Every structure is written in C-alpha cells, then in structure tokens.
C-alpha cells in the first residue's frame, strides 16, 4: 500500500489582522525572479554577494508581508520586486553610511597601543633615580650633552674640561644608566 499523500494545509495567516502571502506563491516568485533579482542587487552592492543575498531575502519578506502586491493583476511581478529591492538597497546603504566605519580586525592588531600615562610616569621616575645614582661629574656631562643638547665641544667649554673627558664621562655615565635600567631592555648587550 503506498504511503498516504501529504495533506495540504489551507493557508492560515499568522494573525487575523495581518494577512500573509502563501508559501507556494513565494517559492514560485523566488524560482521565477530570484536569480535576476540577485544579479541586480549584486550590481547595486558593488559586488557584495552576501549583502545582495540579504537584500533578496528582505525583498521576499516584503512580498510575504504584502499579499496585495500579488493580487495587483500585473503581467509580471518583476518590476515591483526590482523597485522594492532597489529601495531596500538604498536604505541599507544610507544606514551603513550613517554609522561609523567598521574596523577590520587585522587593522586593530597593527594599530599602535595607546600610550599608558602611568607607565610613562613610572619610567620617568626610574630614569630620574638612575640619573640620581650617578656621580656628580657624570650627571653634569649628561645634563650638558643630552638635556641641554650641547655638542661635546660646547659641553667641554661650559664645564671647563677637555673634550676627551666629556666623551669618556658620557660613555661611562650611559653605561651605568644601562645597568640601572636593565628592566627596560637597556642591558649591556643592547
């Protein structure tokens, strides 16, 4: 005995106040016009197939919500469908443009981390301590050469010492600072 044929349920709207298009009519519209509608929307979305698919679905949802459009008596539903789809594409574009630009996750990985004010303050304190631990002669040379941006000859004239002494004191002062600030990646090997 063959299995009984599936019973076709009569179309019952979800709500008595909101009539809906029956699923067979919607499926027929999808078969007849879906490809053309998708191609049209791919063009309107600058080649974005996923967005075009979403707009096709939204267009069919509008058909489902407005059964009176099917009963209009037109020879073809295609012009109405394309008009609805075009308006939906325009609305989607306007909505996208009114929102801030979306950020590509890879762009976030390459973006510089925001500067941490606390870390900068801690670093400044550590550098001051390291400079304070230097001898008076070394501090004076660093003050002249690095903080007052003087040349070796200008620093030598200001301090009343030979230029060679300025160079050697600068070298040993920086070496002592590297030792004192090793946690910052300024070790002797750096």
Strand content: under 5%
Determine the fraction of residues in helical runs and give it as a percent range.
Answer: 55-70%
- What is the string of helix and strand elements? HHHHHHHH
Integer-rounded radius of gyration: 38 Å
Poorly predicted sequence stretches spanning 5 or more consecutive residues: 6-18
Characterize the quaternary organization of these chains.
single chain
Count the strands? Answer: 0
Largest sheet: none
Mean pLDDT: 80
**Count of helices?**
8
- The best one-word shape is rod-shaped
The termini sit apart by 89 Å
Structural class: mainly alpha
Write a short abstract of this structure.
The protein is mostly helical and about 190 residues long. Helices cover about 65% and strands about 0% of the residues.
SSE inventory with pairings:
Elements: H1 23-44, H2 49-65, H3 78-98, H4 105-110, H5 117-132, H6 136-147, H7 152-159, H8 163-180
Helix pairs in contact: 1-2, 1-3, 2-3, 6-7, 6-8, 7-8
Task: Write up this protein.
The chain has helices spanning 23-44, 49-65, 78-98, 105-110, 117-132, 136-147, 152-159, 163-180. With 190 residues, it is an all-alpha fold. Helix 1 packs antiparallel against helix 2. The longest helix is centred in the first third of the chain and has 22 residues, at 23-44.
């Amino acid at each position: 005995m063959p299995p009984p044929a599936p019973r076709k349920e009569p179309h019952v709207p979800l709500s008595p106040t909101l009539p809906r298009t029956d699923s067979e009519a919607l499926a027929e519209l999808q078969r007849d016009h879906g490809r053309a509608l998708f191609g049209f929307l791919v063009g309107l979305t600058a080649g974005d197939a996923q967005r075009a698919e979403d707009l096709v679905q939204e267009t069919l949802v509008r058909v489902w919500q407005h059964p009176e459009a099917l009963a209009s008596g037109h020879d073809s539903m295609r012009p109405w469908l394309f008009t609805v789809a075009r308006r939906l594409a325009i609305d989607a574009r306007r909505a996208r443009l009114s929102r801030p630009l979306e950020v590509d996750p890879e762009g976030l990985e390459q973006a510089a981390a925001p500067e941490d004010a606390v870390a900068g303050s801690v670093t400044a304190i550590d550098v001051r301590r390291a400079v304070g631990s230097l001898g008076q002669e070394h501090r004076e040379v660093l003050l002249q050469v690095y903080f007052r941006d003087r040349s070796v000859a200008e620093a030598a004239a200001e301090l009343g010492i030979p230029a060679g002494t300025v160079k050697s004191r600068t070298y040993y002062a920086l070496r002592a600072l590297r030792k004192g600030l090793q946690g910052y990646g300024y070790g002797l090997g750096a």
